[in-house]
Amino acid sequence: MLPVERYAGCLVGTAVGDSLLLPAEGLSRRRVARRWSGPLRHRLLFGHGLVSDDTEHHFLLARCLAAEPRDPAAFARRLAWCLRWWLVALPPGCGKATALGIIRLWLGWSPARAGVHSGGNGPCMRAALIGAVHADDAELRCAYVHASTSLTHRHPHALAAAQAVAATAAWLVRGGSEDDLWPLLADPDPDWRRVLAVLRAWRQEGADCDALAAALGCPGYVTGWSLHSVPFALGCWLHHHGDAAAGLAAALRAGGDTDTVGAIAGALFGVEGGEAAFPTAWVDGIVDRPVSVAALRAAAATLAGAPRARWAWPLLPLRNLGFLIVALVHIAGRWLAWPAVRPRAEGDAHAR
User: Fold this and answer.
1) 212 Cβ partners below 8 Å, 6+ apart?
2) Which end of the chain is more exposed for a tag (fewer CB within 10 A), N or C?
3) Burial, 309: exposed, middle or buried (Cβ in 10 Å; 0-12, 13-18, 19+)?
4) Could you tell me which of 25, 30, 36, 35 has the C-alpha nearest to residue 249?
5) Is the pTM of this model over 0.90?
């Protein structure tokens, strides 16, 4: 597969998983089972899908990585600048930790120190492309993941999980047996080692993804903590190699931080199989602007050496207002469709 096809698959796969599973974000496994039946399809906007911060961050990272492919510090400065202005556009789905990190960037913190002490999965949703681009240089790959993570998160859990996503994407590009993958996912953090042991034991048992969610301590919904959502996303991809529909369905079924789990798993399915890994209807059903499917493909082409493409950043605030309206209508529909006795908390998205 040509590099541009992998890069496009990674970015479009992020958008596919994000947009398909976004309508279920924050719902428990029980409520997902009640509301979502039949095959996966776009449900947010009259049979079409919109993307969240997961896709937008991956897109911005792609543009910065294309501009600074060999200098992690220069890459971090450029991405910090992009994230500052992304926040100015008032994205309605920005996680608390990410927002605080970007505010610190505006207040003068350096890119290496702006991140807050949060183990949320914000850096993980934008890590797969780094692995795909720097698949053959582990040292450079780790430096780029560290630079990207430190902008918003400085907790070792977030870094270990982001490195694991990038390492998995790199392994997919290089090829090899599954036995070769596990050493790449190792990290000094003891909590990550414990979670990785759970993931590997589950894989050896051959159980399904529902069992993995329970083993990770997420029987009701998968949280946005990086030690929950990232191993679960890896498991959805591992268990359903080459079958994005089944893998994303498993991510949806688990509830919780579905859009980020879907974005990470979708990126890995895309690195593995390119855009062909996804039904055409899923890709064509994404109607977002200015971070559109066409913009994602253009960013992938730039990474492969094509001229840098322009994108209509000034449209982002207006788009975010429209997204907020759609989201509020969707949330109102959730509650109107739910029985009068409602649980106190349906999900814990944690601060991304």
Assistant:
1) 199, 202, 231, 232, 235, 239
2) N
3) middle
4) 36
5) yes
